[in-house]
Amino acid sequence: MKRTREEKLLDPRPGSRIAAARDFGIDMTQIVENLRLTPAERIKNNDDAVNSILKFEEAVRRAKAKLAEKV
Which residues of 37-69 are buried (b: 16+ CB within 10 A; e: fewer)? Predict the structure, then answer.
């Protein structure tokens, strides 16, 4: 019986590259969850993450500028 991609990732054969990646600390469940999404959903999630980082950077800039004004 042929194993699915998910089965290979979640229960890798000992000595395989996937097992080595898991043992190194890579979370295979996150990879599986990402593979369940469509490419469009993955792009949207990536865009959301980038936009969150940009908003955070802007908030840090504003906070630093406010602190500089007080000095």
Answer: eeeeeeeeeeeeeeeeeeeeeeeeeeeeeeeee
